[in-house]
Write the structure tokens for this entry.
Amino acid sequence: MKNLLLSFTFLLICFSVKSQEVTGSWYGSLEVQGQKLRIVFHVEEKGANFKSTMDSPDQGAKGIPMGNTTFTRDTLEISAPNLMMKFTGVLNNEEIKGTFQQGGLQLPLRLTQKETKLNRPQTPTKPYPYMEEKVTFENTNDTVTLAGTLTKPKNLKNFPTVILISGSGPQNRNEELMGHQPFLVLADYLTRNGIAVLRYDDRGVGASTGRFDTSTIYDFAEDTKAAVSYLKNRKDIDKNKIILLGHSEGGMVAPLVASKDKTIAGITTLAGPGERLDKVLLQQQKDIYSRSGMPKATVDSIISLNKGFYDIVNTVDKSQINKEFLKYGQSKSMSNIEITQQIESVSDRWFYSFITYDPKETLQQVSCPVLAINGSKDMQVNAHQNLTAIKDNLAQGGNKNVTIKEMEGLNHLFQKAVTGMPNEYAQIEETMSPEVLEIIKNWILSLDKL
């Protein structure tokens, strides 16, 4: 009996050790159509069971909950039925080798606990040759505290100050995605060149309070207004030299604020929309699907279907959308599940505010100097479509102090790109084109001469 108990104890110890070996973060890369796609599984032990989440850093996705996680006889199995995804691998000598499956795709995947460090040569390192201050300010309308970083040039007075406004999705003050930190790179470059910069965590992100998931572009505009008010109340900031710079969705927020606040000295939109957002999304879908090799007939069919849904959102009373979606979906032989998914998407407060927003009227009310830059290989916000609309809308409002730049070969993040597709962002070491940084800097400094 004693030997049996010892054996049983030994088995328990072995199981415990093995469990400890599989817990933690596991890093690997999938080869998909010639591109590397990083995958991270975070495995933790919960009593006698396991649970896990998955990150896809190159797609900007973190903390995706996995449905089932088991570890039996050195074999780790992680699955997410709602994503039609499964990974099965064998733990051996501090690595897990196995197969990643999603839909009909099966790919080999090797995981280790050594994180792959991406080379980001433009990311600045301390010490900085300028002043840096952690700050907080209040959006009293929504009882939200925004936390950010203010960088200021040393030994200068009456310098311009730029407020950075992030793109869509929850973003921290550095607009960090896929190992890149565009707002950190931009703030560092501008401050080294005599321009103060305030950047802040989106509400509900990082050190900022509030909820991101229920917020709209109009809520984000209120946060930016709070940033402007905060700067105006600082004695070390020239309140007549406050400039707004918005990237992507931030390029919608900046004009919203400047159209109401005539003290704003200028705005810069980086990959900002100028067309109504349903048109921007349809063009985005067309560009991405076509570039990915989808047959033209299929692309046209998808665009036509989605246009029908978007037209309903923009033409009928909000209370009637669900009924009209159901009627339209059934006329297109869609399943109830597919129709419900469409209804749920437009029920989201942010998406509804986004899809119904038309920058035209707002841009016509912007009277301050404007710099609008888009990349020719931007697959998310088409350069020609939106720069043309921005220019026309500003002109219709009588604004003649407008600089329009279409940057050849640059993508949505203003990296020098090959295809411009989003799956390329992480593979590019450059965070932001030095040429774009210089254009922004020169334009801001030129405002003093007006």
Q: What stands out?
A: The chain has a mean pLDDT of 92.
